[in-house]
Design brief:
alpha/beta; FAD/NAD(P)-binding domain; Enolase-like, domain 1; five-stranded parallel beta sheet; 24% helix; disordered C terminus
Amino acid sequence: MKRIVVVGAGMAAIRFLESLLSVKSFRFEIMIIGEERQPAYKRHLLSRVLQGEMRVEETLSHEQEWYQRNGIRFLMNEKVQSIDCNDQQVKTDRGRKVRYDYLVLATGSTPHLLPVKGVGKQGVRTFRTLEDCYALLENAHLYKKAAVIGAGVLGLETAMGLVSLGVETTVVHHQPNVMNRQLDRLSAEMLQEELEERGVTFLLSKRTKEVLGNSQVEGIRFADGTILETDLVLMSVGIRPNIELARKAGLEVHRGIVVNDDLQTSMPNIFAIGECIEHREATYGATEPIYEQADSLARTLTGFLATGYQGSTVSTHLNIGGINVFSSGQVLETEETRTFQWIDPIRHVYKKIVTLHGRVIGAILYGDTSEAKHLKRLVQELAPVSSIPSNHLFRGEDISSHSTLKIVTKKALSSRSHRHS
């Protein structure tokens, strides 16, 4: 029986195992090696734990009995240090040598830290692992003021978590809009306003130059010379693929571990999935592309409906403090795009679809995300404009026969009036 060894026990690894078991798992002996002390968990749910919406136990992927029942050997709290491609084995930090027929690298990523002076001071943290979550929950009472650097999804979710723990929290971002990669100006302003109502403060268009203090954080100095007093700095400024293990093994790496459509590395019997990979010059940090890669690799290795991985359309879902936001594809206009927008200023609902040459290429839903699944599919398929569910999205507007729909500016929003574009 051939053996599959999975390096890493994050969401990509567990999804791969689940998908493998759902097909023809009996063909393989399976082993998974994870360096964290805790059982595998769903990392994207940790912010909900911080916000008090979920217990830690609810983030766990499976109980230990699940691995045993499915014949999976799980080596926990053990790190793979090297790969011997010639002898087809990996060596761990405990001196263990494990043979493989197929090796799956799911080594994930590490949080990026800004290369600024003082970043090593006590009180500078990231929010990435279960241990990070425990540390914030246990020590929140020690902090009076927190600065979250980065206004992406994780930064905003973490900021709301800190506010819910009673910490005065300011989000610092170098761009003028929050979630600037996923939202347009109007939806970003709507989101910021609602988060401000819930206690989050924002400092936008600010570039961090230095973390102040002796050994302990006392503040942040910005490039414009202004200072923000704080005793906790939480950096949420992106991730870096974990490629060092692959690099040392001689595999091809660029930004990530380079893989083809079969998610195969430059070594034929070594594959890679998740945040550590680079596929067609793209890297992914969102949950759905990672799951798509895991499912695709399971099909490839079992030969069951294998089609190869073609890349993913990245969609973003944000749900904090009762605020629902969805974004998919290209959401910013160009000279060639046509945009359909609709807004309900009373219910704080905003809907936008971006099209190019009669095809759907992007969408934003704010407040009412009930059509998110359908719109995501339209973006993925580059569906024709006629496919847009106008009866649900735009309250009876026939978008197939109009060049534009009603558009509301921020000024009009405050007066609750509409104007035609």
